[in-house]
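Continued from yesterday's entry.
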Amino acid sequence: MKYIHVRGASENNLQGLSVDLPREALTVITGVSGSGKSSLAFDTIYKEGHRRFLESLSAYARRFLGGIDKPDVDSIEGLSPSISIEQRTIQRNPRSTVGTMTEIYDHLRLLYARLGVPHCPSCSKVIDSQSAEQVAGQLLAVHRGARGLFCAPLVRERRGAFASIFAQLKKDGFRRLLIDGEMTRLEEEIPALDPAEIHSIDIIYDRLDVSLGRRSRIVEAVERCFALADDTFRFIVDGTDPGDTENQRLFSGRFSCADCEVDLPALNTRIFSFNLPAGMCPGCRGTGVALQVDPGLLIASSRRPLLRGGLAVDFTMKGKGRPAFDPGIPGSLLRHLGLGTDATWEQLDQDARDTMLHGAGKLPGLLEYLDEARTEDEAFLNELATEGVCRQCAGQRLSGLSRSVEFSGATIGSLCDKPIDDLKKFFAAVELEGTAGEIACPIIEEITRRLCFLEDVGLGYLTLGRAAPSLAGGEVQRVRLAGQLGSALQGVVFVLDEPSVGLHSRDNRRLLDALAGLRDRGNSVIVVEHDRETIELADHVIDMGPGAGVEGGCIIAEGTAAEIAKEPNSLTGDYLAGRKKACRRTKIREPWRRAIRLEGVTRNNLRDCDVEIPLERMVAISGVSGSGKSTLINQVLHPALLRKLGKKAGSCGEIRKLSGHEFIDKIICVNQAAIGRNSRSNPATYSKIFTLIRELFSRLPEARARGYRPARFSFNVDGGRCIECGGAGLQSVDMQFLAPVEVICEACGGQRYNRETLEIRYRGKNIAEILDLTVKETLDIFSTVPRIYRVLETLDRLGLGYLKLGQPATTLSGGEGQRLKLANELQKTSTGKTLYLLDEPTTGLHFEDVRILLDALDGLVKRGNSVLVIEHNLDVIGAADHVIDLGPEGGNKGGRVVAAGTPAELSSAADSFTARALRDHLAGGPAQERGPSGLPGEAEARPDGIRIEGASLNNLKAVDVTIPHEKLTVLTGVSGSGKSSLAFGTLFAEGQRRYLDSLSTYARHFLGNLSSPPVEKITGMAPAIAIDQKSGTATARSTVATITEVHDYLRLLYAHVGTPHCPECDRLLAWSTPSRLSEEIVSLNAGAKMHILAPLCIEEASGDALRKTIAELVKDGCTRVLVAGDEIRLDEGEDAALRRLLNCLPSDDTSRHPQIYLVADRVVISESVQSRIAASIENCYSRTGGVAATRIENGEIQRHCREPSCPDGHFTFDGSLSPRMFSFNSFEGACPSCKGAGSELKVVPEELIVEAEKPLRGALSEPLRTYMENFRPSALVVLEAVERHLGLEGPYSTRALPEETLDVLLRGLGEKKISLTLKMGQHEASWSGLATLLEEWARSRDPNLAGAGLERLFVQMECASCHGQRLRPESLAVRVADKGIHDLLALSIEDVRDFFQGIALSAKDEAIAGDVLRELSNRLRFLEDVGLGYLTLDRRGNTLSGGEAQRIRLASQLGNRLTGAIYVLDEPTIGLHEWDTRGLLGSLAELKASGNTVVVVEHDRQMIEAADYLVDMGPGAGDGGGEIVAEGTPRDIAGNKESLTGRYLCGSMAVDAGRDRRAPAEPGISLHGIRRHNLAGLDVNFPSGVLAAITGISGSGKSTLVMEILAGVMKKHLRGTSEFEHVDKAAGLDGYRRLVTVNQKPLGRSRSSTPATYAGAWDLVRSLFAKMPLAMTRGYNQGRFSFNSAQGQCAACEGQGARQVEMQFLSDIWVVCEECGGRRFNKSTLEVHFKGKNVADVLNLEIEEACDFFANQPGILKFLQSMKDVGLGYLKLGQSSPSLSTGEAQRVKLATELAGESIKGTLYILDEPTTGLHFSEVRKLLEILNRLVDGGGSVVVIEHNIDIVNAADWVIDMGPGAGPQGGQIVYEGLPGGLRDCHESKTGECLRAKGIGGGDGP
């Protein structure tokens, strides 16, 4: 696609806009501020592109990425994944630095934690680990004689609740802990810790006296603490407070300096974080700056003696209320310098001054002494303190321990102080080898990559430690750009928000170079911009307008800049063409007479700088980004002038002299701080006029009569605001993973206020109507109120007349927000001597808005004020009276005045970059037609494909390959040749990483490790999306609805628009809010009299109880109650009220609670009292817990409830509907009986009782008896007691027991208890029954039960409570359009989609659920499009066929309709019939046609032949592969003789060797009346002695027939059972004595799992080594030779052979274990040899080598030969399972089963055994299957592979359709006849390929 087609965009003020934006071009969207630019670029295009890509991520990840709502747009076509670079506010957090903003500091922390070398902070020696003996020695030396706690610090200053840690500690037998310094006993209830707070947890291991006699026990305690707490140990002397550091000490087993008694904790990333207590400097708390005594303020007079007035602190006497300062401190310092007490400051040279301030040796300086004293008298010394660089850490922010760790000779603080240019050189010079090199390499590569990005955008002068608040706006912008633009992606939409803001013209050209590079790489770049240069250099310009707000939202003109300049209706065009100019002032002001002079300014990069700033003029401060402008004005001039005005201010750096300040009496500063960004902030509140308006309304006569104060007219305060929406006017509906939906409040209609407040009017308008007026409209209304009018007039003058006063701040554009801030400051009264400081006021402003701003500033100067502007905008600089240009460069190369003068004078300066830009600007001229070639620099060649160079992941051998863009590329080759390593491990991993790098750090935290794969270079890369062969969620708890996330959207729908019904009677629940009930009463009963009542709950009707109730009511001020229709006054006296009350009650009423109502209010109903009625009802609800009553005109009393309740009183719904109520995986929604499973685990009595002639204990199966004797002996004791209780003494027959007695034994005694005699005495015990106990143990997932092989005892049965519907009754009773959620889940996808197409909702419900319904409709449509419309949503995931599960995943991924992405698919044809593969190919073709690149790892011939490009990998597998054998079109590969794939494609090799077919040896297995899923009364015959292929389209019933029915029947038959589930009759089973199944379950995925361990051969190898003479001599058993056993494994790597290095946000690294050299075992174990090889050598053998090595060991050889036969001879015995390809893993399973017992009489069932196999491997598989049949076995395969089907002896074809349209046998017989069966889809595929025929049934 050449364009991004946007249709019907209506976000914010966009008016159904439609536009086509050219792809792979630089498009600028411009227009006046507020015209809708950001709404189009960000809220529509970026949001939708970003949403579509994130939809490809997991549901878990998306949950943490915030609401991804769809923008308000009809359609967008041609949209690629989008990345935004927004104009966020400059980061002002003092804890943020360049390093943290770019995340480079995170990588530095990781580097130092993994490879740092600790040094002693005191003596700087390298420190090493210490043993427990050494620690004991230190304890005895320091704390001998003390008694204290020996603690293991398990958690140190970390956030979390740590519930699992407490549970494990309790389980491990620990009883006492220190939690945040407080002792806690684990036997007691553990306090719930706040997970957001930082906690420390210590295990109290022991309490001991520190004495020589206890040394051995002390050593033992220290060793144990080291083991528990990662080599750390804490000793705490008894009675020590948590804050007392002297009597407690932390020891480290790793790092300790014995000379200085300093211990360092184990190195981790936390101790290098200045945001955590573990790492931060205690002096500045990690900010690098601290409030300290200022040397400049300490010296009161330089000419007076220091001890007599020279210092601001009097050291000679104690003042009243002031502390006494030690005069010895300055005296000692003076004596040290050899000076007398009369010395003055000016007499001291610089060295002497430094000594006085900072001390000498152990003698403290004045600053250190006074800083310590300031903590005692903060108020007094704060007058001398300013914020400055922390003297304790020298601004490095870290503690002394953290600053003492070095890497390559440098500390982390010193690296952060280096400029980026120097830092890059430092890392380039680092040389590391071995393990250190492996660990450091990926970290340093990532650091260097990020440093290069910063250097590329001209920020090489910055340091990583530079604080964010000190950065200039341009620097912040470029830091952000560097982080986003370095991804090297192609095909992406980059959306930028005014990137030129804060950039000098010189720096802007560098930015434009970067944007040009992005575009030239094949990206679409969309920029919201007002900058003239950017507009002129764009390929396409869109001008929006014509006005702002509601007056905008349209496209005025589009085209090139020159075309826009010719458009007469374009305001932008007027400025581009020169028809209008921003500066209209032509007269030059007279030379200035007054000025502020700054001499010797030093701060940041300003070094002894002198500046003269004219007053009563407009002065512009200019210069390149980072040249020192903000430092000069905001950090020096502003605080210095504030101090001169007598106001509190921060540090202003060093100023030698300041003059001219006397001409200034007021300062007004307009900075870059953001305005309020919530919906309650608006122009009226921000500008403070809303306070004036509220005061005005409160002074109106009617308001004063009612007693209304100004707060009554605030929508943020109770009283006047609407109580339903809290004054918001909207009600927000939380939609969880979708963005919240806001609907207009029904109570106030969006007006925010209650009815009474809205009755107060000013000039005919109430307060809500005032807020709804524009600024221009309110000018007339408030023309007579000067204070309000002045503010409104300023807003209008700045072009904001169109804004509504109540418009939420969240809807304001950046330019509108900036002008609102300006107006707020400019409306303040000036004195004529006011100095206005403005920091880049043109941010977000259009040319026209800049003109308005300049007019306003010019007006200020005309009134005698001074205006000082920091600005890059050349219109502003050109309009200034005086310009001061700083530079010449940024950072350390800037900081001085380059030129100063009028704009004309400045333009002639030679060394000024501003001058060069200003000369061109003053020359003027209309926009030029420059187009793409106008961008500076050479255009980068646009890659026409994805070029991968040097890919080296796993077995790839520096592979180079080019994958064409927008084509279907198939990667094929033998299993294990490296296809997945190239496609997924390299291509997909890098494509996803590059895109996800654009997300926030927080978001990436939930997306797994995103490190770069081992590849030299990848160009032409786009964002990648994977559709791989992961198993997904095929569990009993998953369903089609949960897998597709349809259930999540249904939960949202039912939670927000569902209507609750009574679970018992199904009536609609009714409830009333006070406002809704009051409105209903007024509308129906106007003029009637009414009682508002609160039902009182009286426990009894006795006189005492009633008297107590009356007393309480009177005390509360209540005066009336209503009983039996009579009203009784309580203020007549307690006795009289009691008598009347008792008289009103019936005499026989004392047996039940009387119904007494409190009269809360009595009113005559009218609109004027509606609020009073609502308040009274609310009062009743509060008193009674949610119940109120009304009685109108002495009628019947009507009850009302705040919560939904059944009208008949059956049920009250407590709470509100939430999505969790409809989740069967949440306790809020799950059925309590089955916990949301829909079924319960039940014991099968027939399987439980095996020998029924014996007593129950003896009748149990042997494994069950063994389990109970070993793990549940107490249950057997109780069973014996139950038998005695039932009189079953002596031997008895379980079979002969009465049914009631057997039921007691199996199902229990209920609540009845029996007597139990134990050694400890007599006890009572309950008995729930043996079967019930077993079910409870199974549900608790007892691992001992699972390992006992007792699965056959249990069966899953439908839950009796929820009948399989999984949810609670109250959840099932919620309706939408008269259907409960389970009613919908029980429907097919087609039927559910039809339901939603016909659904009708109210307008409010439609507003809430509109997005949910659209998403549901889309997801259901995608499922239908891939042919799954027949599936029901409640179908369990583990019952789906392979093809169905695959298509579900495809449907969820392919529905995003992205353009420009890379889709990587892993064998998508697995589980698909060739007929279904046609549909898949159509979907992939559609993806390709949309401009995407599709890469498929595949062996399927149909897919290979359909490819545009084919890459054949090999030539072998494992180490014999990893190369590209051939590449080109399928035709090219077919003609390549070197390609094994090519030989099969051209027909020179074939899978089937053409052997004769076998006839069935016997009738075989006959199954009749099969009923399961879509099989309905099916009869089928499986011949014996043949290779039978079961085929048919996906979902036709193959897996149900074979894997569930046939395998299930055979299993039961082999166990001796003759009753079969789901089958009426089975015959022909007796000829089989063994069943072997090979299914699709994955191998073990841990490094400990290998082919040898999986196959069982390793047990035999270990047994062999245990029989060796040396092993027998040493007593080594078989377990010694297991790398999973502590006996023989290497202790350092725990038998892994490698050590895992945790890299946090990078992928973890496995490095070869240095202890064992990767051999897994310890030295002693490796000394045992068999035939010259030890056990590690054997693991390193390839299977083919091992066959020769173990040729004389038949037991081992059998397994090895089987693997060799299936083509796995190249695998190593010890190769870890995770490194195996799909095809390799499948063949390992197959070989394991084939190596079992003898073949004869065995039924082999294989489920799609060709999964992941190449043609050549399918041929080997077919040979093995034929060998099994020839050996006397019978083979049944479920298969779609046409070669296998055609080679079979017998075929059963299922169909004709899928789901309900399937489940029938379409054909059975010889393969040749299948071709001629026209009802068979398989037959049609055979005919299309010209295969088969001639040997019909």
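--- second protein ---
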Amino acid sequence: MASKRKNLSFAEKNELIEKFQNSNLSKAAFAKANSIPQMAFNNILAGKLCSSNAQICDQERKRQRLSPYENVDKALLSWIEYARSQNAPISWNVLKEKSLEFANELGESSFVASNGWLQRFNSRHNLSFKKLCREAADFDNSFLKEWKDVVLRDILERYESANVFNVDECGLFYRILPDRLTLCFKGEKCVGGKKSKERLTVWLAANMDGSEKIIPLVIGKFLKPWCMKNCKSLPLFYDANSKAWMPADIWEKTLRRWDLNFSKQKRKVALIADNCTAHCTVDGLKSNELVFLPPNSTCVLQPLDQGIIQNFKATYRKLLLQDMISAVDRKEQLQVSPESEELLEDDDDLPLTELAEKLRNHGYAIPDENLYTKIDEDLATNSETSIQDIVSNVLNSNAKGSDDEDDSECEKKSVSTSDALKAIDDLGCFFTNSEAADEHLKAIRDLEKSEYIASCDQRRAFISGFTGSVGTAIVTEKHAALWTDGRYFLQAEQELDENWILMKVGSAGTPTYGQFLSDVLPVGSHVGVDPFLMSYDSWDTLCKELKNKGHSLVPVQENLIDVCWADKPNRPLNKVECLPVKYAGKSWHEKVWEVQKEMQKEGASVLIVTALDEIAWLFNLRGCDIQYNPVFYSYAAVTLNSVYFFIDPERLSSEAKASLENTSQGNMNLQFCSYDSLTDTLKNIINTKNEGKIWISKESSYAVVSLIPQERQLLKITPINLKKAIKNEQEIKSSQNAHIKDAVALCEFFCWVSKEISSGNLTEIDAANKLEEFKKSQSDYVGPSFETISSSGPNGSIIHYKPTEETNRKITLEEIYLCDCGSQYSDGGTTDVTRTWHFGTPSAFEKVCYTLVLKGHIALSSAVFPKATTGYRLDSFARRPLWEYGLDYSHGTGHGVGAYLNVHEGPMGISYKSLPNDPGLQPGMILSIEPGFYEDGKFGIRLENLALVKEAETSHNFQNTGFITFEPLTLVPFQAKLIDPSLLTDKEIKWINDYHVNCRETIGKILEEEGKTEALQWLLKETQPLG
């Protein structure tokens, strides 16, 4: 007889899921060990996300029944939570009426608040009706003893009294003078009209032993009140909203600012606060522990309510009365009568009671001083939750999408660069005064070394509004300047406002950083720089340049941008995955051994690695902390017998952990260290390994390099950099496969655009989205390797253009369309390709420009040259056809590309500028070849392939030098319509025809096998031989 089927509760299912996640068993083995049918266990795992999102209060339930009116359900539950926090009684009829209000606001016209729906709602959320006892909202004294004995005792055991803070808000009628005072304000809530303009909310905080008072936060109604118009700095923090209340966003921003400051002090503190609705929990705090008081207990337990706030207000009003009496230059404003001038003397030390009596004696209508002090005692300091607020929150939560959504795509809050610069200036004054630094500590440089960075590191974009991937911002007391290269000139001109000076790198007359600072700063100035944001090489150059002009470069302990960036995102801590050896080509042990051999050759005992792509390559790991680049925040140090990995092991997937723990290939002493312990751990390693050189790249930050004694520094590119650049056989194979998949998607894409464009409604953003759709159909596709450049007409002349809702243009038959895109594939490949297309009839000038760019592309692609030739010597191959017509382009011609790593990879490149660490091209390297031409305000042309450097077959071999050439990896056709064959040589025509044959044979075969007939016909048409 079959056993009776058992229905598991949600609690039991969650327990099983947690038990499975902590085991090393497969699904089948785990199900068997726990006597569960495998299909049933699969269903439990599949239902995990659904059950976790359902807010099931009763974990003993065995069946999850969702509401057909999910938004009404969420809104009503949210309102109940708020109402109960206010101890408001809720009856059955109130619940019905409230649910109908929410349904009306949410547009659910078919909703009926039936008894059945309400019963199911209560059941879903484990709600029940209870009789409200008399004075239910009063504080239960038994809670007081319990809170003191349990919660407070625990806090005091874990924290010193100096690190226990109480925070609270109070309302303040800051402009009330005695002659305007009336008792009608007593006990009233100020919610609008004239009175709301007279009020502030003041946020106070102090520690338990009275040794520290935190700088107050004042919340007003206006972001830029006229009284602060010419203020350079304030002795307090100021924020604003329309009602001068403390909302949740200001609460969170303030706590994060506190957390940053306490973290830098290396302190852990407890913050005790009441549980009002604005006081939300804040995730990700490192140094602050939030402790909330029980409901309705503030009058008993809140320390600041025990006379401290009242004393603050009494002191404030005493100062206000003193100002009223003594400010002779403001007699008219304050209406101080001439007869009252005798009050101007000897009033500084009078208590409030005597000041009040003195004013009464001179005809001022001063009420009782206790009433004057307590006039705003009951003033509201945080908002009540409205129906509209709840509905908005429900709809916003629905719009967030799944947990897999990329956080970096979220819309960023717009910040005025004027406000940002003002904040920097204020902070500069604050730090100058508080740290007794030289008065010229004004210059702040933000060098973001990585091309692509996480949102938490986008300081330059925050302060300037410029979003290009390359640029340097310098801010002084009176100037703000930004340096960038030719790829971003047009973009910078559009994004920078009137506060900024654009410095065009490479253009005649553009000063260096040092020249600019020497021109605008008085002699003897100190230029402050965050040492973690500037490479040692750049620091050394700037330091020497400034020293020659009588200035000095000094490291600052606190980045002023971080301090004024109130809503700065947290550093991402995403999961790190393993790249299998079958794609990496070598185990991480082999790579470390090769690196250690290079260290021995150089006499180095320690190698410090700070470049994220080098760390990812060394350990065969990939992450997603940086958008478009599969890298993760970490550091590494390699000695001759150990490897130190600065990362939280919990970030590693089970496969990644297993890979690193695998010692089958020899004894590899791997030690995990905290990411934030870098400085202390490196100091210890350097002191322990007291012999030999310490190898570190000059591109590492000054803060890290400066830890090494100068006599032990070995400053050169790391051995990992070059080994990563020269791809092994498997990495080359993976790259070839990636380009085949990319070409299939691009053929489908251009075929689709050629048909869709006739509708007249196709936009740049539509095209970019559709391209992504085609790419997602390819196996092992992870995502773009950079943001797709989909640009039509004049937008194409912006070299690194990004389509937005404001700039989005239609793709038409009359304009050139430029598409530059790339992909990351988890089987080891990274791509980057640009094609320029015209779907109508191009002009003669457009055809000439396109053909000249193509001639340059062919010249470099077919070049044969000695091994170790630098890219600087090859760059002119691609430019010569344009030069002969008096044309050029203002960007480099090629960059290295990683193997499922960064799309822009060093140390080699092809550019009109000499690259300091370029080792010269060698077989196995992968580079882009991408000449272009850009007619400002009209069109842009760029033709980009990725190419593999390989051995060339030559008749001779001069002095056994060895000669190399390029082999194209990209297999996407060039548009014959845009080519003027009369400008091509026979050799160039043959190169194009041979290239198109390769495209047709390789990609056409796959399109045919996959039944993509339309894309195949498009490819065959576009690869017809040139006559």
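Residues 577-725 form a domain with the Creatine Amidinohydrolase; Chain A, domain 1 fold (CATH 3.40.350.10). The two ends are 82 Å apart (CA to CA). Will compare against the first tomorrow.
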